[in-house]
Automatic annotation (TrEMBL):
Cofactors named for this entry: [2Fe-2S] cluster
Record key words, sorted: 2Fe-2S, Iron, Iron-sulfur, Metal-binding
Name of the protein this chain belongs to: 2Fe-2S iron-sulfur cluster-binding protein
Entry's family note: Belongs to the adrenodoxin/putidaredoxin family.
Length: 106
């Protein structure tokens, strides 16, 4: 799926992320600085916070209770469209996703 990461200054990086890979892992691998992913996806750091702006195709599943709880600990206050990008795994039906990165992760 085509994942677009929008930095706070508006600059964009577009990655082609394979099915089964998370939006966090792909960003960390590419050195996209706006996502830290300190805990490696174990859902204990909340430094992979993103705001989902656009979804093309099948939406990723809604946050589960653990993610919802962890979203209360993000550096920049959560919004309705907040997600932990380590919990956004690219699925077969997802065409494209645009995520905005918060001003700060820590
Ligand atoms: Fe730590 Fe997502 S990488 S909560």
């Amino acid at each position: 799926a085509k994942i677009t990461y929008v930095e706070p200054d508006g600059s964009r990086s577009v990655l082609d992320v394979p099915v089964g890979v998370t939006v966090m892992d792909a960003a960390v691998e590419e050195g996209i600085g706006g996502i830290v992913g300190q805990c490696g996806g174990r859902m204990v750091c909340a430094t992979c916070h993103v705001f989902v702006e656009e979804v093309e195709g099948e939406s990723p599943p809604e946050p589960d209770d653990d993610e919802d709880e962890m979203l209360d600990y993000t550096a920049v206050e959560r919004r309705p469209e907040s997600r932990l990008s380590c919990q956004l795994t690219v699925g077969d039906g997802l065409g494209a996703l645009v995520v905005r990165l918060p001003e700060s992760q820590t």
